[in-house]
Amino acid sequence: MSAMSVTFAAPAIVVLGRSALDTARRLRASLPKATLHGLTARVGDDVDVPFTELGAHLQSLYAQGTPIVALCAAGIVIRCVAPMLSNKGTEPPVLAVAEDGSAVVPLLGGLSGVNVLARQIARTLGIAPAITTSGELRFGTCVLNPPEGYVLADLAQSKHFVSDLLAGESVRIEGDAPWLRDADLPRASTAARTIRITPRIGDGDRETLVIHPRSLLVALTRADGVGAQQVRDMLSAQGLSALALAVLVAPLSLMGHAAIRTMAHELGVPLRFAAFDPAQVDDWLTTMLGSDVDIRHDERGMALALAGAPLDPTQIGRARGTLSVIGLGPGNAGLRVPEASAALAAATDILGYATYVAMAGPFRDDQTVHPTDNREELMRARHAFELACEGKHVVVVSSGDPGVFAMASAVLEALDLSDDPAWKAVDLRIVPGISAAMATAACAGAPLGHDFCMLSLSDNLKPWDIICERLRHAAQADLVMAFYNPISRARPWQLGEALDIVRQWRAPQTRVVLGRDIGRPGATLVNTTLGELRPEQVDMRTMVIIGSSTTRGIDGGPNGEWIYTPRWYGEAPGR
């Protein structure tokens, strides 16, 4: 059997019950960046990505091109993804694995390496994969699915090719195809059918299967006046296929230019940056790719390098670093937004307050975790930028929403204070989360259903007299108030003083909600009133929501009562 190297997108390992978790975790440990997805009703929070409905979840993964490894019956998977089947050439790998690890069945994605993934899984489980692809069984490789670094020129034209070989036709190989050396192909030097390995555009010959090595590099020396079409035109003028382009490279000084990122996206190739002088790009290319590289130039400031073998983009320059500031929500993985989970799965480095970093796990062996103390926000933010400037994919974690009394502001403050242009070139993203106030309000009903404000009672970064002034204005304005950081061992007296201020404008019967550790194990929800509320009922992990004059309770809810604030104020609208 010939060896193949195929790079997959991060697979989703999908389980429907706890009996499959042991096998799923073995697979996750063996598949780089794989994430564990589980049916919430059966596995709870013991997964990376929870879901509530299998069919919709599998269809969403399929539409995103995510490889699916489902630990359930093959028929279940087939029925779920059946509405999505249309174009064989765009199928991601889809496999069914027995819950006990006794079988692995590749179902879809023959042209995207499903059999390679099946063999990898089978090696982990110590079993034989159930490969049924005729060409692969006969020849020991999937001719129409070349390994990483090579790409099929025209799938539609090539569909008959393997059928002809299976019917007895012979083939000859032109060019270097190392993965076919040990394949059991019916070879003949006089064969009419040819597998041609070349970066050049094919002539459309029906008897020739053209496979392009991704051996071309385009280096930009400026950002203006060039785009994806100009790159395609340059390649076409040289008789070269755009599919053979492996990477687009630009000087570090152009890292912040959105036009270059758009160009790489439209070309479908990685974008890398390197420290080279545009006036001496030939010297850099020769140093990077070797003295035998063929370098050609374009009048628009592009340099084209033709290498003798496929190029590995990860070994050329570096990527633009990313820094994602994410909110984990209240703690329950089911309340974490998918974009935050995706950022964690793609991260090379994770930074944050140690408690929140632990909530974001588990992590893979190839991920580096940097837990710190809760009061080191600016130092943490600066460290994150330094890592991102090295081309790493960095995640800074916050609980709740990162923009609500959390790390997003600290990260932007660090950026604002820095004079390092490399920091401003980092791909910075703020990923929202469900805040503690929103989670508590949802459990209680809708106490934030009308105008409200959020106030932190911590005086670590602002004077206590400012907090008191804001409390007076909010109470006098009859706003619902959500208190963050309501009390601590260092300032046990502040909540009592804050409540005394509020009571000057609010009646004793004003409704109050106390939510402690909402979304985490041991969560509690208490409905009380302003008159009954005592500071001893509250700690640093409690969200305090004080209602307005219109906030009320009705029968129902987890504590026998729903708390809500009507949408209207003053006289109720006609109903």
Task: Please provide a written account of the structure.
- This protein is α/β, with parallel strands linked by helices.
- Helix content is 29%, strand content 23%.
- The strands form 6 sheets. It has a 6-stranded mixed sheet with strand order 3-2-1-4-5-6, sandwiched between helices. The protein has a 5-stranded mixed sheet with strand order 13-12-11-15-14. Strands 18-17-19-16-20 form a 5-stranded parallel sheet, sandwiched between helices.
- Strand 27 and strand 28 form a beta hairpin.
- Helix 3 crosses helix 4 (74-81) and helix 13 crosses helix 14.
- The longest helix has 13 residues, at 464-476.
- It is globular.
- The N and C termini lie far apart (75 Å).
- The model is unreliable at 1-5 (pLDDT under 50).
Could you give a quick summary of the protein structure above?
The chain has 575 residues and is of the alpha/beta class.
Major beta sheet summary: 6 strands, mixed
Structural class: alpha/beta
Which value, in Å, is the CA radius of gyration?
30 Å
Q: How many strand segments? A: 28
Low-confidence stretches: 1-5
Helix percentage: 25-40%
Number of helices, counting only DSSP H or I runs of 4 residues or more: 18
Q: How many angstroms separate the termini?
A: 75 Å
Shape: globular
Beta-strand proportion: 15-25%
What descriptive keywords fit this protein?
18 helices, 28 strands, 575 residues, single chain, 23% strand, 5-stranded mixed beta sheet, alpha/beta, disordered N terminus, 6-stranded mixed beta sheet
